[in-house]
């Protein structure tokens, strides 16, 4: 319905005329949905004060300026790779954000916060009972089948006292405004609620887009909540300086970016199931220094997948034996396995009575009316009013078919589909619930400089602290692009919005770094590097270095193909050697042999099927980097994504050798910037060392391979000249030697010169320094395998004479480097059958 212009406010005196006209047009043209509550207008169809203040301030920006501000801020989303994944899709989607936030006043927020705190307290009490004395089941207040029918009810947790005394330190609830104007609960998130990290990103983007408006509105900050959440998690451990891990399903999780962002923001260790090992009642993280104790695990893996020994035997996401460690009290699991049972819709209908029974008061936030069909009377009610209800699964089961796992409005189904649902309901009534049809309330979104009403769902978070539950002031809001949506998920074309809770007085600017404690021990080593992270960093370094080497070969190829005075390698054996090396490298197809062509240069850069092409290597680097986003800066990620985008752009295929050369040089500049970031912006801790070791191993192998190819015994001047180009040695060689190119000094510069940053000798010396700084597994004074390989190689490289250097010797150096790479993997990455380090558990910290 259109809002009556009579109730719309006139232009405010403090607004510029253009802004006043814009505000009046927004309010005049805004249409709400019939019979549906809206956030902009109250039940009397008057604009809410906080919304009016925000829109008045927002109207001060011209349409062009507001778009420019928002577009500039949302570049952060693209540059840092803020993304999500829809179930069943392999590719990630960019994060969709509305330019307008959801505005909530202080009075209304106080009611929401009180209701969320009460509900979290109630659910915790129920969990304490059903995994403890089970009085609620014994008294008949809660049917046993409503619990045991759920896969999320973990019998192995019966009688287990949770560390810290709480089963559910973290809780979230999805809310919508009901037809009576009150907030209603749409669903509980008690297992591993997602979205808190995305709420941080949404706040970052909007506060950057409209900083003056954000500060003037007195928006409550999110940082104090996360600081309290972190302290609450630490308090559940039995050590003063606990190691807190965030357990992720891995890079293919639908919300992996959010998990990585949350881990980085809170300073937690992001781990996967394979990174952990359970032994003797404790859980340890596989690190490069051996096994290190995990004190608290914030899990984002569903309980059924946590332990393949006791739960789902097909799971590859969990850790064998982890439930035994939880039972023994050796690790605090947040939330405890089994808390997900409270997400079952079968329990919603019992919560109003349980609240009065357990807490002695009514629910402050009512549920959607729900009837569990496992009870005969409720089932009769559902069958009688079937066409007026939504039928939904009673438990959080998922058989691979998203459609059958979602609520279905019976009245909208075809006769065949309706008959199928009725047959399923009568066959297994306990598997279903009937619910009243919920019409989600709406909020304004901006489309083409017009306000439009969009249905939304608000997710609010609560975290347990020693002082009780702390409620995040705001939350995670999702809006629908359709006006008839009854449930919203990110796979259905939904967008997100920041949530601004407006305080009545100026707020204090805080961050999670401001909480100062006198008893915090100063550290200069940032924790222990997990083996998987070391593996990824090592291979990220190798992929980037290999891409750079391929680009250098491509640059020489482009130069050779150009009809210019500098094209001295445009024909003959040198060009053939260059092309053969690219073929052997996997960057060029065998059919490219014989005569240069633009296609050869283009394929080297952009052939997505060639495992050695630049685009293939850059994508491999990006995939590897995506597995450890919490360890890479936004600038690093931005440059890597920009390089991939430029190489993959269909319209950027070079039309000439000159264009191919230009693209190659620009890609080299981006890689040089990446190298600069890693050298200047990364702390010199273990992570940086593994990234640099990967580069040094790859660069040393490449130096040997190029030397064998172009500095063979019968090398020509053109061959040696090309080799110096590839290793950036032209200037240095001419400064050292007044004579022309000669085989021995060129070999010396490429292989044995410890002052040349691209020579083998420099890489070997750097690798020695890195290995010397890394921790040893055993303090017995014996050399480890990687040292037994590297030290003889270093000695021979340091003592060799260039005149005695042969192609066979260079090949042996190359093979020793490849053996070294394997030994580093065996020692530090601790995967597969080699996952058990030789270290006494008693000495683990």
Provide a concise account of the structure shown.
InterPro entries: ATP-dep_Glu-Cys_Ligase-2, CP_ATPgrasp_2, DUF403. With 845 residues, this protein is α+β, with helices and mostly antiparallel strands.
How would you characterize this protein structure?
It is a single chain. This protein has four domains: 102-345 and 440-502, no CATH class; 369-436, no CATH class; 530-682, no CATH class; 690-845, no CATH class. It is 43% helix and 12% strand. Residues 101-479 form the Circularly permuted ATP-grasp type domain. Residues 529-829 form the DUF403 domain. Pfam families: Alpha-E (PF04168), CP_ATPgrasp_2 (PF14403). InterPro entries: ATP-dep_Glu-Cys_Ligase-2, CP_ATPgrasp_2, DUF403.
Low-confidence spans: pLDDT under 50, at least 5 residues?
Answer: 1-11, 398-404, 563-570, 832-845
- By oligomeric state, this entry counts as single chain
User: In which range does the helix fraction lie?
Assistant: 40-55%
Number of helices: 27
How many angstroms does the end-to-end distance come to?
Answer: 65 Å
The coarse overall form would be: globular
Largest sheet: 7 strands, antiparallel
Radius of gyration equals: 32 Å
Q: What is the number of independent domains? A: 4
State the secondary-structure class: alpha+beta
Mean pLDDT: 86
Query: Percent of residues in beta strands?
Result: 5-15%
Total beta strand runs: 22
Domain Circularly permuted ATP-grasp type: 101-479
Domain DUF403: 529-829
């Amino acid at each position: 319905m259109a809002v009556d212009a009579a109730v719309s406010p006139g232009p405010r005196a403090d607004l510029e005329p253009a802004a006043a006209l814009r505000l009046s047009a927004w309010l005049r043209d805004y249409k709400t949905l019939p019979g549906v509550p809206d956030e902009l207008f109250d039940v009397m169809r008057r604009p809410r004060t906080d919304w009016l203040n925000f829109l008045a301030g927002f109207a001060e920006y011209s349409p062009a300026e507001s778009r420019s501000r928002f577009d500039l801020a949302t570049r952060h989303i693209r540059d840092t790779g803020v993304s999500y994944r829809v179930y069943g899709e392999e590719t990630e989607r960019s994060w969709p954000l509305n330019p307008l936030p959801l505005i909530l006043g202080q009075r209304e927020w106080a009611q929401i916060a009180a209701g969320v705190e009460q509900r979290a307290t109630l659910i915790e009490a129920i969990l304490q009972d059903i995994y403890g004395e089970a009085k609620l089941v014994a008294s008949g207040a809660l049917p046993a089948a409503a619990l045991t029918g759920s896969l999320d009810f973990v019998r192995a947790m019966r009688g287990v006292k949770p560390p810290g005394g709480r089963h559910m330190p973290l809780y979230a609830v999805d809310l919508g405004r009901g037809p009576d104007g009150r907030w209603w609960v749409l669903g509980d998130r008690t297992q591993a609620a997602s979205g808190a990290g995305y709420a941080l990103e949404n706040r970052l983007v909007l506060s950057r887009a409209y900083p003056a408006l954000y500060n003037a509105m007195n928006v409550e900050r999110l940082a104090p909540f996360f600081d309290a959440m972190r302290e609450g998690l630490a308090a559940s451990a039995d050590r003063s300086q606990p190691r807190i891990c965030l357990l992720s399903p891995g890079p293919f999780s639908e919300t992996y970016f959010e998990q990585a962002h949350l881990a980085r923001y809170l300073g937690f260790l992001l781990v996967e199931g394979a990174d952990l090992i359970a032994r003797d009642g404790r859980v340890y993280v596989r690190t490069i220094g051996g096994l290190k104790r995990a004190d608290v695990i914030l899990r984002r893996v569903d309980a059924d997948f946590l332990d393949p020994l006791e739960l789902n035997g097909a799971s590859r996401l969990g850790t064998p034996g982890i439930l035994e460690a939880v039972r023994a009290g050796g690790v605090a699991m947040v939330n405890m396995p089994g808390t997900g049972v409270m997400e079952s819709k079968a329990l919603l209908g019992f919560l109003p009575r349980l609240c009065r029974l357990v807490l002695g008061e009514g629910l402050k936030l009512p549920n959607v009316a729900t009837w569990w069909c496992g009870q005969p009377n409720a089932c009769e009610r559902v069958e009688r009013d079937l066409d007026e209800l939504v039928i939904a699964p009673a438990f959080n089961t998922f058989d691979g078919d998203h459609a059958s796992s979602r609520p279905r409005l019976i009245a909208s189904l075809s006769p065949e589909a309706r008959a199928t649902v009725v047959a399923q309901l009568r066959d297994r009534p306990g598997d279903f619930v009937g619910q009243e049809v919920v019409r989600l309330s709406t909020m304004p979104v901006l489309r083409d400089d017009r306000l439009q009403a969009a249905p939304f769902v608000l997710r609010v978070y609560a975290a347990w602290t020693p002082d009780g539950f702390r409620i995040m002031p705001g939350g995670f809001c999702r809006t629908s692009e359709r006006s008839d949506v009854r449930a919203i998920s990110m796979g259905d074309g939904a967008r997100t919005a920041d949530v601004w809770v407006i305080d009545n007085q100026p707020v204090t600017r805080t961050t999670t770094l401001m909480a100062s404690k006198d008893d915090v021990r100063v550290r200069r080593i940032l924790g222990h590097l997990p083996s998987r992270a070391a593996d990824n960093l090592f291979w990220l370094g190798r992929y980037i270095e290999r891409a750079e080497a391929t680009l250098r070969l491509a640059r020489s190829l482009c130069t050779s193909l150009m009809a210019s005075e500098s094209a001295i390698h445009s024909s003959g054996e040198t060009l053939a050697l260059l092309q053969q090396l690219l073929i052997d490298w996997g960057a060029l197809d065998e059919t490219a042999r014989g005569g240069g062509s633009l296609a050869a240069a283009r394929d080297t850069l952009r052939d997505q099927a060639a495992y050695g092409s630049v685009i293939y290597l850059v994508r491999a680097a990006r995939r590897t980097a995506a597995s450890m986003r919490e360890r890479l800066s936004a600038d690093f990620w931005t440059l890597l994504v920009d390089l991939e985008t430029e190489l993959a752009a269909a319209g950027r295929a070079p039309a000439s050798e000159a264009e191919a050369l230009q693209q190659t040089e620009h890609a080299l500049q981006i890689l040089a910037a990446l190298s600069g970031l890693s050298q200047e912006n990364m702390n010199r801790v273990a992570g940086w060392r593994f990234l640099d070791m990967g580069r040094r191993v790859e660069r040393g192998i490449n130096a040997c391979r190029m030397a064998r190819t172009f500095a063979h015994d019968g090398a020509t001047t053109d061959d040696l000249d090309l080799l110096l180009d590839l290793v950036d040695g032209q200037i240095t060689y001419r400064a050292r030697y007044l004579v022309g190119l000669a085989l021995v000094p060129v070999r010396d510069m490429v292989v044995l010169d410890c002052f040349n940053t691209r020579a083998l000798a420099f890489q070997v010396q750097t690798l020695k320094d890195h290995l010397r700084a890394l921790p040893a597994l055993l303090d017995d004074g014996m050399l480890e395998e990687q040292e037994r390989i590297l030290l003889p190689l270093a000695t021979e490289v340091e003592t060799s004479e260039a005149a005695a250097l042969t192609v066979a010797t260079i090949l042996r150096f190359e093979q020793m480097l490849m053996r070294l790479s394997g030994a580093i993997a065996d020692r530090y990455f601790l995967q597969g059958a080699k996952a058990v380090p030789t270290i006494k558990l008693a000495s683990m910290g």
